[in-house]
């Protein structure tokens, strides 16, 4: 974030810009065994991520619903040590989804999965309202697949206000969710491998050393010298422009690159 802020300041950029933040809305799977989702029984219009952070699934007599994981509901555990319908244990105490998962893993096997019509029927028969079971999906991610770290969201965000706000942009160092079809500038990220070194050089010449042709000729000579010294062909050399936009400035009658 510090590097991004420095780049924005260097560019005098103070508007909104895309960053590699996205909401993986199709990553639903089961807590038990981290098993991918197969057949689904979503309630009409679900999942809709109505509040912008509905990453946990609940089951009811009407089907499935995606809800805020911090909301409190009863839940259904699964116990592999039991047989038949006794494997499904209804817990009437209301908890958050994560607390319910922890309880089921401590006292039974895990939250219950509904992978086929039989399991769906058994679990639905235990419920009278929205009830946690083992359905969940991932939270916001980075597109380069690195682990998500804490980021400051703008107050009230993400909220999915306009529906399908599954891409993230940054504004004044805070993240905001927006529809991915919105048009705005963006920040790229490049992984620099190898060693980077800044060299200061002093040049004496009767020519205009800020002339592009002269600069290119000098750069090629430096590159060849470095190849010989470092015994490698994998070298990239480029001029570093100063704040005034030029490479060389005269100093005491000589041309110098700081």
Structure description:
There is one protein chain. By secondary structure, the protein is an alpha+beta fold. The protein is built from four helices and 14 strands. It has helices at 2-10, 97-107, 117-124, 212-230, and strands at residues 17-22, 29-30, 56-60, 63-67, 73-78, 88-95, 110-111, 131-136, 141-142, 167-171, 174-178, 201-203, 249-251, 254-257. The strands form four sheets. A four-stranded antiparallel β-sheet has the order 9-1-10-11, with no helix packed on it. Strands 2-8-3-4 form a four-stranded antiparallel β-sheet, covered by helices on one side. A three-stranded antiparallel β-sheet has the order 6-5-7, with helices on one face. The longest helix is centred in the C-terminal third of the chain and has 19 residues, at 212-230. The chain is elongated and about 90 Å long. It starts with a helix and ends with a strand. The mean pLDDT is 90.
